[in-house]
């Protein structure tokens, strides 16, 4: 009879992946303040110009955050982390900003609109990446 429990290899991987997530999260949080200010300025532009610029801001932010998290996977992980982060950043930031511009009132989202918007954009990005049917 096999005993069920956490093996040392599993614990090591859990710690490693936790560091990856923590690295990306902390980097994304602190750089997000800068990105937020940039996006606030871009939201004042015309719709076509705003939509054209947002993916570039998102891909840059994603590369920085994804690469920072990937560093914990033997430095090599920074490359795929940056690629994945860039793709998700370009998509998610663009979608979020478009929705934010449509829903804001006087430059601010009304209380209660931000959590569903953030969760919805994140869930949509995850469903596309994981290949779940959206319809």
Question: Topology of this structure?
Answer:
Layout (H helix, E strand, L loop, with lengths): L7 H35 L4 H24 L7 H26 L10 H17 L5
What coarse outline follows from CA principal-axis ratios?
globular
Order of helices and strands: HHHH
Instruction: Note the beta-strand portion.
Output: under 5%
Into which percent range does the helicity of residues fall? over 70%
Number of strands: 0
Class derived from helix and strand content: mainly alpha
Give the CA-CA distance, first to last residue: 45 Å
- Tell me the Rg in angstroms: 18 Å
> Can you count the helices?
4
Walk me through what this model shows.
The chain has 135 residues and is mainly α. The chain has helices spanning 8-42, 47-70, 78-103, 114-130. Helix 1 (8-42) runs antiparallel to helix 2 (47-70) and helix 2 runs antiparallel to helix 3. It is globular and about 60 Å long. It starts with 7 loop residues before the first helix and ends in a 5-residue tail after the last helix. The mean pLDDT is 90.
In a nutshell, what does this entry contain?
This protein is an all-alpha fold. It is built from 4 helices and no strands.
Essential attributes:
mainly alpha; 0% strand; globular
